[in-house]
Amino acid sequence: MILELDCGNSLIKWRVLQVSGDVAAQGASVSAVDLLSALSGLTGVKIERARLVSVRSDLETEELCSCISSALFIDVQRALPAPRLGGVVNGYLEYDRLGMDRWLAMVGAFQLERRAMVVIDLGTAVTVDFVDAEGGHLGGYICPGISLLRQQLTTHTRRISYTAEEIPMMQGEPAPGRSTVQAVERGCFLMLRSFVASQVLAASDYLGADFVIYSTGGDATLIDDMVGVRRVPDLVFRGLAIACP
Ligand SMILES: Nc1ncnc2c1ncn2[C@@H]1O[C@H](COP(=O)(O)OP(=O)(O)O)[C@@H](O)[C@H]1O
Ligand SMILES: CC(C)(COP(=O)(O)O)[C@@H](O)C(=O)NCCC(=O)O
Ligand SMILES: [K+]
């Protein structure tokens, strides 16, 4: 079985693939210790190798790889930047500066359908990338994700503070907030969705009328109801399998 790891700035997403390609187990862990303890609790799972993508620092990523490698007695293959992969051409002036999660999400998405596309990843950061029908990456945008938006307010104001338990149910409702938690949660939610809507609107300028919109990442459900958005939770893992076959 293969262990796949997507190390973002907030969470380590992981899954175990059977030889058939079916998912045997999956989860999200906050640390290597947490990851190894989740894996040790699995029954009937025999991991033979691992492939990993990381947007963490090189030092942190190397430590993570060697920690997993020595705990599970396996090789950990790491996805590395490339100027082109899976029909997609990296659009950055310095290709190795493009976030590997953005890159693999685009590569994974392009295998689903070789069409022009907008790839939106809603994690710690929200990223939007444009790829034309020939696989040319036109570049993209990076802005703070929903957790960072709310954190900026709670950190830099005197009177905005509320607990995580107050957050659920505050976002879906568009009406003006009548409490601090409502006002902030709905404000950040609308800000994020307006950003996405503006990108989708601009996409036809870059890609023409025919393009597909993919979403992924921990907060992708925030835009589930937006017209044309197709959520594919494992886009990064799909690209990872191309990068580390
Ligand atoms: N247990 C959790 N810890 C941290 N973030 C969580 C958790 N559960 C859900 N989230 C949400 O998921 C987001 C992280 O999404 P993810 O795609 O994993 O980001 P990243 O790739 O940057 O680590 C957070 O910004 C937060 O809003
Ligand atoms: C933009 C990101 C911070 C997104 O990371 P995430 O929110 O998935 O943790 C990451 O892709 C990154 O560090 N990129 C390098 C900078 C760039 O892509 O230009
Ligand atoms: K990510």
UniProtKB/TrEMBL annotation:
CDD domains given in the database record: ASKHA_NBD_PanK-III (cd24015)
Cellular localisation: Cytoplasm
Any GO BP: coenzyme A biosynthetic process
Pfam families reported in the protein's UniProt record: Pan_kinase
Cofactor names: K(+); NH4(+)
GO molecular function, one term: ATP binding
Statement: the UniProt record of this protein carries the keyword Lipoprotein: no
Known EC number: 2.7.1.33
Main location: cytoplasm
GO cellular component: cytoplasm
Metabolic or biological pathway, per its Swiss-Prot or TrEMBL entry: Cofactor biosynthesis; coenzyme A biosynthesis; CoA from (R)-pantothenate: step 1/5
Binding site for ATP: 6-13, 124
Cell cycle among keywords: no
Residues the record lists as binding K(+): 121
Active site positions: 101
UniProt remark on cofactor binding: A monovalent cation. Ammonium or potassium.
InterPro entries with a match to the protein in the record: ATPase_NBD, Type_III_PanK
Binding site for substrate: 92, 99-102, 180
Keywords: ATP-binding, Coenzyme A biosynthesis, Cytoplasm, Kinase, Metal-binding, Nucleotide-binding, Potassium, Transferase
Catalyzed reactions: (R)-pantothenate + ATP = (R)-4'-phosphopantothenate + ADP + H(+)
Role this protein plays: Catalyzes the phosphorylation of pantothenate (Pan), the first step in CoA biosynthesis.
Subunit structure: Homodimer.
Entry's family note: Belongs to the type III pantothenate kinase family.
PANTHER family noted in UniProt: TYPE III PANTOTHENATE KINASE (PTHR34265)
NCBIfam families listed in its UniProt record: baf
Protein name listed in UniProt: Type III pantothenate kinase
Native organism: Stutzerimonas kunmingensis
Organism ancestry: Bacteria, Pseudomonadati, Pseudomonadota, Gammaproteobacteria, Pseudomonadales
